[in-house]
Design goal:
It contains 22 helices and eleven strands. It has 588 residues and is α/β, with parallel strands linked by helices.
Length: 588
């Protein structure tokens, strides 16, 4: 550790500095009126509905949204470690704050430092340092996913679990003595990954372990080919290890127990509840990423913001760096694979996993759905998150060439690496991170003080990313309003609408039964019967007031609401949704 002190200082400083620059602003909560708000909201919901004793569990079915009908909230974008973090900060600092910005930088630091610690003993300081940067701040797909898709940009435990699995495989193949503490840390990492998004992040670590286990078991069987001696060998191994590092082993067992308590019950609750829904009636999105994107360099004129490859590849493009970890890394991985090509056990699990990810199509070739944790994975491009790890574990085998032509090639690759690092990262700095405004926070604080348990957003939006609710007319202004329900994290009252990553058709039936699509139709003028229905709905269910969105209504519609319920007492702008005014109902 002491010999690496300067390397750690440099890595921590560089990662924290570059990560903080990418975040940009740590003053207010994140908000863009779109997916960014979803992850803060999940933390808020987690805080309100988590019960820790005797085992952590969530109150999933409630009327906090879809009010007053109720909804099973299982299809929120869970990330349990992130949600524990947000809930703790929410309680400590009494409300929302810039908690996820700090969490993201923490994630980058754990990724970089942990990778260095795992790799350095086998490959040296320089390679470990570079790989630590590649899988953290220069993982451009993840970097560009912050903050809009924070569920797939926070991957620190998944990265470390994959790297530790590879390190274990390497040590076993090389017949090295493996400490019991390392094995326990490896087990612990498999529990830690459950604190991250299961279907798009943690599942990759579990997949690599699943593919690696046959190689590990086969190798150990060859090395210890007399099964009758296994119990004695295991006993002697544990006795020796306990003698030399008992306190370290005890510490590992404690953190394993803690992580199991924090994450296993919640994971089982969400998985079991989600699998009860049959989505066979909902068409699967054909969201896939062409494998050729692997060869796209992060260079001016070639990267995916300068050149549109979609018309040629005919795939589903979602964000910058999708499928493109960097051409330099692909070439280095190819060279590294060639140099270890005869050690099949060393590269087979990682290469097989890479192929499963590259070929994945949710409908035509659902390779990843061989594994239960990918049951709800609906976008093949999101495997881009782990390409730097899989390719990096091949590239790390590249040895310095002795001859001039090889040295020239390596030199060119180093230049290409620097150019791609600069291009991918500097472009990210040009994209501002959006925050909630002071005006929005003051507006919500006033709403929070009003008597009543709920607020009606009008119009409201009830929809799933799988399309449920769209054709039924329950979200006529999706682009503007898919995130307005998340602002209840500031005013802490129930809401009627909500966006989910997945929504089952059965869950919107109460809205259809009561005729909401007709009332939500753009430009629709309420009849006397409609007003009577709305009056009764608001009065019976103890609504505090109405968030009215004048920019989404005709002047006649807005005037009709003012005439019916009175003039607004506050006004602000919600990101994407535009102007919003609050009409209190307590005076009625």
């Amino acid at each position: 550790m002491r010999k690496n002190t300067l390397w750690y200082i440099a890595l921590i400083s560089l990662t924290a500095g570059l990560g903080s620059l990418a975040v940009g602003d740590f003053s207010l909560p994140l908000s863009d009126g779109n997916d960014t708000d979803q992850y803060e909201y999940v933390g808020y919901f987690f805080n309100k509905n988590l019960m820790l004793w005797p085992l952590p569990h969530l109150n999933l079915f409630n009327t906090q949204t879809f009010y007053p009908y109720g909804i099973n909230q299982v299809f929120l974008d869970w990330g349990f470690e992130r949600d524990y973090w947000y809930a703790l900060c929410y309680r400590l600092f009494d409300g929302p704050g810039p908690y996820l910005q700090f969490y993201y930088v923490y994630s980058l630091l754990v990724t970089a430092v942990g990778t260095f610690a795992l790799i350095e003993p086998r490959f040296g300081q320089l390679k470990a340092f570079i790989l630590g940067l590649i899988v953290s701040v220069f993982n451009f797909y993840a970097l560009w996913k912050f903050p809009v898709h924070m569920n797939v940009c926070v991957d620190h435990w998944t990265v470390l679990c994959m790297v530790a699995t590879y390190r274990l495989l390497l040590d076993v193949l090389d017949r090295r003595t493996i400490s019991l503490s390392f094995l326990l840390v490896w087990v612990w990492l498999h529990l830690q990954v459950l604190g991250q998004e299961l279907g798009y992040v943690a599942g990759y670590a579990l997949t690599l372990t699943t593919l690696t286990m046959p190689v590990l078991v086969g190798t150990l069987f060859r090395q210890f080919s007399v099964p009758g001696r296994w119990p004695l060998l295991v006993r002697d191994y544990i006795v020796v290890q306990w003698k030399h590092q008992s306190m370290l082993i005890l510490g590992c067992l404690i953190i394993i127990a803690l992580s199991a308590w924090l994450y296993l019950p919640l994971t089982m609750q969400i998985a079991i509840t989600a699998w009860q829904f049959d989505f066979g009636v909902v068409p699967e999105l054909r969201a896939w990423s062409h494998p050729v994107r692997l060869l796209i360099p992060h260079l001016p004129g070639f990267h995916t913001f300068d050149f549109d490859y979609k018309p040629y590849l005919r795939d589903t493009f979602e964000s910058y760096a999708q499928g493109s970890p960097g051409l330099y890394l692909v070439v280095l991985a190819g060279i590294g694979w060639w140099q270890i090509r005869r050690r099949v056990g060393l590269w087979l699990p990682g290469v097989l996993m890479l192929l499963l990810c590259l070929l994945y199509h949710p409908v035509l070739l659902p390779t990843l759905k061989l594994f239960p944790w990918f049951s709800f994975n609906r976008h093949g491009g999101r495997s881009s998150l782990i390409y730097p790890i899989l390719l990096g574990m091949l590239a790390i085998w590249v040895t310095p060439p002795r001859r001039l032509p090889g040295q020239v090639v390596v030199g060119l690759l180093v230049v290409l690496m620097g150019a791609e690092w600069y291009t991918g990262y500097s472009q990210r700095l040009r994209m501002p991170v959006n925050l909630a405004s002071e005006s929005l926070i003051q507006y919500c604080d006033l709403v929070k003080k009003q008597p009543g348990v709920a607020v009606l957003d009008w119009p409201f939006c009830t929809i799933g990313a799988d399309g449920v609710g769209a054709k039924e007319g329950l979200c006529p202004y999706y682009d503007q309003q898919n995130a307005v329900f998340t602002f209840r994290r500031f005013y802490d009252k129930n809401g009627v609408g909500q966006y989910f990553g997945r929504l089952h058709p059965d869950q919107i039936q109460p809205f259809l039964r009561d005729g909401w699509p007709r009332l939500l139709k753009p430009g629709y003028s309420f009849t006397d019967q409609d007003w009577q229905f709305l009056d009764s709905f608001l009065r019976t269910n103890n609504f505090a007031g109405i968030n009215l969105y004048p920019d989404l209504l005709t002047p006649e519609q807005a005037t009709a609401f003012y005439r019916r319920y009175g003039n607004p007492i506050a006004e602000t702008r919600f990101p994407a949704a535009g102007r919003v005014v609050f009409i209190p109902l307590s005076r009625k």
